Each structure stands twice: as C-alpha cells, then as structure tokens.
Amino acid sequence: MSTAQLNILLASGSASIVFDARPCDNSNADKRGAFFRHSSLRNALVIKTSEGPTGLGTRLFLPFDSSNVSRGGMSMICEPKMTCDMLEASFNAKMDHAQIEGDVRKMEILARTPSLAPFLLRDAFERAGVPVDVRYFKVSETEVSELKDILKAKLKPLAAMALPSIGSKIESTKLDVLVTKLWELNDIEFLAPFSQALKIPKDETIETLYAWIGVSYFNREFSKRQTALRGFAEWLVSKPPFGPGVRDEVLAQFEADRKPVRDRMRSIWTAAGSIFDRFNSSYDKLIQDSDASLFVDYLRRVKADFQSLGMYLAVIEQALCIHAAIIRETSGNQRSLDLLRELSLSMRIASDQRQAAA
Amino acid sequence: MSGRERRLAARYVIGGLMVDVNGVPHETLDISNSAVAIIRQSGVNYAKIESLARFFSEKHNPLNQPIKSMHFMMQRASIVVFGYEVDVPSWENVLREHDVRADMKQLEDVFG
C-alpha cells in the first residue's frame, strides 16, 4: 500500500477498516484511558487491508506524530495468534511481558475479527472477556442494543431446533432463554444438541455459530454500501475526465487503470451477493419448511464465508475511500490519476498474491 | 386454515412477538397470515380457548392486535399451532415488515 493510500485511509475515518486506538487529547471531554497499555503502542491505529495470501491483513500503524498521521510512521502485521516475543521482534526491543500481554491479546482479537466495524469489534471484545473502554468503538449504546435484538431474533428458528430435546421441561419464555444462550455461545453443554442437530464438529460449534451471526451482520453492512458503490461503478465507466487535446497514452493508461479496478470490484460484489443468496435461501428453507438440510450444508462453509466477507468489505471500503479522494481532486489532474493507478496496482498485486498462494 | 394451507403460506419469524392464550403469554415460533406456532406450556388447555386471545409485542406497536377468532390445528412435543383471524386488512405486510429477514436485502448488480 502506498503512503498516499495509507494517508487517505487513515484520514477517511472509515470505521470498518480503521480503528483509532489513540487516547483522546486533553481538549476532548470524554477522558478515556489508553486502549493499549504499553507506551510504545499508545498512539496506534489499526487498519484492515486487502493484502497478503489470505487477502485480508490487520496492520498496526504507529505514527511518528500522533497528531498528524500523514507524517508517516512504522507498521507491523497483527496475527490471530501472537506472542510477546513477536511484538519484541517487531520493535527490536526487550519488553516487560507482564505489561504487554494484555495488549497482545487485544491485537489478536483485532486480527481475528474479519472487520473493524464497531459493533462487530465491540462484540468480539465482549465475547473474549477482554475489558476495554467501549468509547473507542464508534457505535452508540442504542445502536448496539437494537442490532443485538435484531441478530438475536434471527436465532429463534435455530433455538427452536433444541426444543424437542428439552420436551416437557419447557417453561414460560423458554425460547427466549435458548436464544440468549445461543447468542452468548458460552455454554458448551447447552450447545451440544445443536452440534449434533446441525452436524457441526463439536470443537467448531462456537466458531461456526458465531460466523453465522457474523454473516448475518455483514448482510446489513453490504446493503448499506450499495448506493455508494453504484456511484463508484458509474464513475468507472463514465466518460474520461479530460478536456480536448489530451494525449492518447494518458487516456489509454487511464482506461487501463480503471479496468482492473472495475473487474475486481465487480468480482467481489458478485461473490458477496452469492454468499448472501446461499445464506438467505438456507435460512428461508429452515423457516418456511422447517427443513434444516440446506442450512446444515451452508454451515459447513460459513466460517470461510465470514472471513471472505471481511476481506470483500475491506476492499470495497478501501476503494470507496480512494474514489472519494479522487473526486475531491480537480477532474483528471495528476494526483487523481496517480491515486487511480495505485488503487489499480494494489488490486493487481492482491490478486497475484492470492493466485500465488493458491 | 388446513395443515396444507399452513405449509404453503409464507411464514415469518418475529422477535419478541407473544400471543396471549387463555390468559397465559406464549412466545411465537413463526407466524403466517392465518396460522401461528407457539411454544407449548404445561397446564394450558389448548383444545378449549376460553378467553379472547391477542398478539402483543413490547417493542412494535403495530403487532399489538386482538385476535378475532382462533382454532386449534395441531400440537407437538414443544409447539402448538393455531389458525387465527385478526381484523387488520394489511396484516401480512405488518408481519413482513417485522420479520427477522426484513433487513436481509439481496445485493443488486450495481456493475451491470
């Protein structure tokens, strides 16, 4: 990723790809404490990027000047499984393990969660039992509560699958209790009948059901971006933004840069649509016909789908941020052409990396 | 409503939708325009509806409706299904709007 791209993403405030872990400055009234405890990490920003063989990376960026991130900084990749030694190696310095252990755990959660979307991230920290100041997540309590209610309600048909095994022990509002337990995903004994009914390997039940909740959440997130993406799609095939007398090679390069962006965006949007179609049809069948066969089939791939959607969302957000920066420029000026070129290049590189990994 | 009609009718799942049967609140599992599956509770005589039944929801006012008529259709270990009628002409639209899938939109082919 180029410095210009990085700066645009950091400045975009796009909460699904940039998590700002910097403490508030003194002028801010909320006086929240630091997200990361170790002094070296205090001014970190975390970015989800489309990079690497899996196509989704989590990068911790430490700006040289915390009040002006465009002045550059250093970055490191966060992994779903990290150790204090890995952090020491990145900083090339000895650190007090007792002091950084909590931060390493937080970095793992940030890396494991396929998107930095505030609701999803806050939920991931809650589920992991890692206490953080929730003011770092740009989502209101009302929104969290509404989203939880919506996502929990979707679990009702699944919770009902456990009812026959409970039989006569059913009490008032029992289904609600089952739904809550299914949402919390922390009672292994309770989940056992689900593993069996849904043919999920026992040690994968929590991850599988969590991924199902995650895909359901992503459906909303992708729908919300449809209008912006339509605008971008139109721009990608619109009349080139040059006046008369433009050189042929400039025009040719412009089109050569737009094409891979359009191809890649179209491909991931179609792939995301296919995931949601499979997700929705298996869920519809469960509700309409009380037939879980399609649903059981779908669950086999839901973890991979959850990760893929995180990657697709990161690519879409990155592209939308760059597009917003391009249209802020004077139409057809050199900087706008450079930004498009870099976006096009990063999409080609990501595609090559994935092909090489495959 | 017959069992066949229930199988063919579109079913909706609505979070927090309850139905009061014989004075006892029951949680709904799914609901169509004319039949509702509820979670069975011990001590309730489902074969004999003695008092006026009603739908109720703490969060969604349009769902709070008295039930004009209700008849027992079938019972399983954990659920009971009733046919019902409400006096709301656009009732199915109300159910659709509050269905758990209402926010699950199909993505359009914006790249055409």
How many distinct helices of chain A? 15
Average of per-residue pLDDT values of chain A: 87
Shape of chain B: elongated
- Tally the helices of chain B: 2
Share in helix of chain A: 55-70%
Largest sheet of chain B: 6 strands, antiparallel, barrel
Order of helices and strands of chain A: HEEEEHHHHHHHHHHHHHH
Query: Which chains have the largest interface?
Result: A-B, 44 and 34 residues
How large is the share of residues in beta strands of chain A?
5-15%
* Major sheet of chain A: 4 strands, antiparallel
Q: On the 0-100 scale, what is the average pLDDT of chain B?
A: 91
SS-based class of chain B? mainly beta
Please report which band the strand proportion of chain B falls in: under 5%, 5-15%, 15-25%, 25-35%, 35-45% or over 45%.
25-35%
Rg estimate of chain A, integer Å: 23 Å
Tell me what the structure shows.
The complex is a heterodimer of chains A (358) and B (112). With 358 residues, chain A is mainly alpha-helical. In chain A, 61% of the residues lie in helices and 6% in strands. The longest helix of chain A has 42 residues, at 248-289. The model of chain A has no long low-confidence stretch (mean pLDDT 87). Chain B is mostly beta strands and 112 residues long. Chain B is built from two helices and six strands. In chain B, a hairpin with a 2-residue loop joins strand 1 and strand 2 (24-31).
Task: Outline the secondary-structure elements.
The complex is a heterodimer of chains A (358) and B (112).
Chain A: H1 3-12, E1 18-20, E2 45-49, E3 57-63, E4 73-78, H2 84-91, H3 97-112, H4 118-128, H5 141-153, H6 156-160, H7 163-166, H8 174-184, H9 188-197, H10 205-224, H11 226-236, H12 248-289, H13 293-299, H14 302-328, H15 334-357
Antiparallel strand pairs in A: 1-2, 2-3, 3-4
Chain B: H1 3-8, E1 18-21, E2 24-31, E3 35-39, E4 54-56, E5 65-75, E6 79-86, H2 91-98
Antiparallel strand pairs in B: 1-2, 1-4, 2-3, 3-6, 4-5, 5-6
